[in-house]
Backbone:
């Protein structure tokens, strides 16, 4: 089944996001194949490997990194582990695809980028929104001039809470919903506008609904000022019932568009009896529901992994890099600082010595 | 045609909003009738009177206030004139319906409220959103417990610029789009949540598109913290092409709803040839368009005027008062101050001695 | 409370539709007032009268017809009683508002029209779709030329079954869903197109879901050919879950529009806890739902009754007459005949001697 | 670039649909590659080949059939040529993918099927709706029991006229919009319901808008009765302005869903300036428009061709066959006969000796 031309991939992780990686490679099989998986909990790697028909499995990812044929690893582990794993992989000469957010501290971000560069491996940042077909279409329209000068870009992601309990623990996550999903929105605005410098951020956070479970923020509004005069607005929530919202708005002096990934693509459905699956985070399939089709493809995951494999082969150059992840990371620190200070924060923002973004908000006396 | 039981009304103004007043009384004729109109530009009052079949017209509103049978006047004049007219009407013993925003300064607001109270007339604040049927339904649902504890209310109004040129002149308007339309959104959040005290406001303003025409803000995001722990978000723009947007979102820990007044009620239409009228501020009726039906009724204007007339008769008590307008006015000052300081501003906010809200933003060094 | 200028109304009936009549007069009180109600079941009339604050009640409607001050009666009784009640009212010198469908047989229709004419009273046909604001807007657009020549008009009404059990009994209803709701769609197409002659009808009926409860049709498609070359399409169902559908489409060579009365006006809502009321026939308010606002007004019921009262006063001339009801009735007979014959049926269609429309379908060997 | 394992494909045709074939193979390149194209007009094949980077081109498709390495041909030529080309390809030992509708006469259909079978090649019918992701999702939900027993399936396709002038000529097309697009809807209903036998068809046709250009029908409603008691409804039009409509509805006793391929996936957009491309048949990109993304993928074309290539390799068995095309062809004859007779037509329907479907409608005296 192995084809010599395809990039051999090892996945680190065996949960929600690792499944997405494995399934994505399966959906676009012409450029890469998953040959190994590593996960520390006994049994998890093997179970995952059998489910996805992956020939090799490991409990220690460092053991997997010794496999000589593996050319690229994807990291689908908790945020606090991203830096260590990336650096180990770089030392082993493997190209790295790292999930979002890039890491915990600015020092980690710099070290990840420097190590990969010095070891001659690619550090690719798994921001799938750069590959989401509906969002890509919006960007093509904007680049075609549909909206004239774009002065505001909005992106929001909302649902009723993360898919793994470690997100509630700010020591493992580094922050709440802004950290978990705001990183998508910040990256989106930055990418959509053509990567202009960030000038300032104004952020408003609250723990409105899940205060019994977390000290982290569960609803966030983050306003970004860019050097080109445009504004980004990022809205996130862990307090939205009824399924997932993932939506972007583009506003220009000459027009606007809305790209809604879920209800905007869905089949409006009423069912007395229910059915298999509607969409991520949907509470039920009885009554009215909003099933989507080909969810991974509509997010752009297979296209993203396909692109990364082609980058390894030198057929394309990376469209989502460690440097992108670093910009997002700096913005996350600045945003939590803005919420903590109850004031706008300007860039560049020096977050050296801070161990996680949310520390700049918690313990500050601002309301909400 | 006159019926003795109906409240006799005089309108001050002859433009856009005065038309809405006259038409609103015509649509619900059982409680009130318009018997006079006053407008200073020669000919305007008469033209208006003939169009709406109003028997009396005046160029000087003070002359109209001398008519003994008039019981209530509605003020549809530029913002800077609201206080003077209200006070004159109160002295003449007439009940007052004043358009939004209430006035220019906090001193004016206080004087309007005090004068009406001491003269024994009602000061009613023409915030039609308190009567908008779709918004009223959302509030009923919230009050029924549909969404559990409501933690966030959003309201936005957007179009491509005001209906009269004086809005571009900040000396006559007192501010830009936040002043023009943000007053609706602030009032909406306050009313929807049951009039909790305002604690703080965080506001981000910019002049993104119309800098050639105005020094005022043309796109605004205003975040309100209320004493009950809920957040209001008000978004306004004069930079939206393609017609009007007027929309509210309600978010609770137990659910959410969206009330979109225009596209959300419209008839999705494609026309090669065009037709009479789609909706306020729509650029064309050719191609795809979003015509609404019974626009005034769906805004709640006739219901609002009907209610005010019943208040004059003592059949109901005012649901939108000068005090409401004063709260909104204070929030407008605080919001411009927040944008000017690039920081959250806490309540109560002392704006005495400031001649118009936008002065607290203009001339400050913050970006955008 | 009584005002001499208002038309005094008596309602015959005390169930679903009678409530709508009473509530409609209450919502637009300036032209008419309900002074009496009649319903044969002991206690019903009194309960209804107390609920709606109606001063007089009767168990025998003929007794109510003797009240000299009553000028207009509205008939909200089962179809089989319409003719008798109309004729009695005409003999008593009362104007008549008769609910849809007009009656059971063509002989009845002719007798109702002739009797009212000879007695000098108005026979008004309570087709509220002629007054539905969203549908009226669509017609205005068409009349403005928005769609060029209109070649097809569609209207559909669907829900999961009638609001009273007598509809399942074809001897009392005269037919199934086509009789119950198709009469609205037929009237709509006829009215929208400017009352051109009907040329032919092609109808396809089935009892797909409720065969255990009725011999009547529960899903119907009815295609009408008009003399002006346009086609009407009427779709009805008692087999639709999840709430009511009431929707019209207009198709011209120059464009098209869609008027959806419920989901098209609704507030898309998610609720964990539920709330008071969403819309007619909605199964629940938990989960996703589509609440409408001001349901009666959006159907046009108050406007319709207001219009009828003004007709009695001679201020307007009836826009929905017994003659309209007769056209619909003939079309219903022809439609059932078409389904029975499995063939198109041409107009004029002689249905004399047939005791109810559905007899022309039942007992015929055609499939489904 | 050539890979020995991939199926080598020759395309017959160089216009609209041939482009879709070539692009579809390019989008999913792992199973097949296009190595040749044939088109009779001088220059067309070469232009097409250069555009799509196809190495060989021919003006005579029979010459292309002599190429020994070609294993599969796709036919994207006018309907009247389908049978001849299929039979020639079968004699050359090539597997055949034939565009819709299958052919002109029932005799042709039988000969195509028999020849391919006897020559041991696959006859695959290019009905892409069997592969449309949104429609496939609807079918999965139905098969999961979401709607209980499905009693009605609707599918419609509408735009303002065909993409090539030969469709207006009934001698080349065999029929109007029912022939052009109704074949999709008939196939859809048959497939969705699990291929039950067709029992009867009731069809209503008209030439409402394009009578100056064609004798063919430009608006069609076709009602199908299936042996399992369900009803199919197929609506098609060449008279719809404002872009393409492609939409399915599924109705069961336990629920329903709607799958709208264009507006239902689109980005609601307003643009003063326009942009590259919105969707097939859209008149403009200025003003409001409904751009779709990844149009071919959302139709299922690449997935369809990928599947057909895998069938050639024996990895899958054909999901859309000549037999399916034959069922559709019989239904088209019966539908035109129903419109001609103004009556329901039962199956099986003997259409031998009739040279094209529309002959059974034209020349008949029925109205419209």
Residues:
């Amino acid at each position: 089944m192995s084809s010599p031309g395809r990039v051999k991939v090892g996945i680190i992780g065996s949960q929600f996001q690792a499944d997405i990686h494995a399934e994505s490679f399966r959906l676009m099989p012409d450029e890469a194949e998953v040959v190994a998986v590593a996960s520390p909990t006994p049994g998890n790697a093997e179970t995952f490997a059998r489910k996805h028909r992956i020939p090799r499995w490991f409990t220690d990812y460092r053991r997997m990194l010794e496999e000589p044929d593996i050319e690229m690893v994807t990291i689908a582990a908790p945020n606090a582990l991203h830096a260590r794993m990336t650096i180990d992989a770089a030392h082993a000469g493997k190209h790295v695809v790292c999930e979002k957010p890039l890491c915990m501290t600015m020092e980690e971000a710099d070290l990840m980028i420097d190590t990969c560069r010095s070891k001659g491996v690619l550090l690719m940042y798994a921001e799938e929104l750069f590959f989401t077909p509906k969002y890509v279409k919006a960007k093509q329209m904007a680049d075609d001039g549909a909206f004239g000068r774009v002065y505001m870009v909005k992106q929001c992601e909302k649902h009723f809470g993360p898919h793994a309990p470690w997100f509630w623990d700010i020591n493992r996550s580094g922050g709440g919903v802004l950290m978990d999903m705001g990183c998508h929105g910040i990256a989106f605005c930055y990418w959509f506008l053509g990567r202009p410098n960030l000038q300032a951020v104004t952020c408003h956070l609250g723990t409105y609904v899940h205060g019994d479970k977390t000290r982290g923020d569960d609803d966030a509004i983050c306003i970004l000022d860019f050097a080109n005069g445009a504004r980004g607005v990022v809205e996130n929530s862990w307090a939205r019932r009824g399924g997932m919202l993932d939506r972007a708005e583009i506003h220009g002096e000459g027009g606007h568009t809305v790209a809604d990934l879920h209800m905007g693509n869905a089949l409006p459905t009423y069912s007395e009896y229910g059915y298999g699956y509607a969409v991520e985070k949907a509470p039920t399939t009885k009554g009215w529901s909003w099933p989507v089709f080909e969810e991974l493809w509509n997010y752009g995951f297979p296209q993203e992994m396909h692109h990364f494999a082609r980058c390894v082969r030198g057929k394309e150059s990376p469209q989502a890099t460690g440097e992108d992840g670093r910009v997002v990371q700096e913005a996350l620190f600045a945003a939590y600082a803005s919420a903590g200070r109850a004031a706008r924060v300007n860039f560049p923002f020096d977050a050296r010595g801070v161990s996680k973004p949310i520390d700049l908000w918690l313990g500050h006396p601002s309301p909400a």
Summary: The two ends of chain B are 56 Å apart (CA to CA).
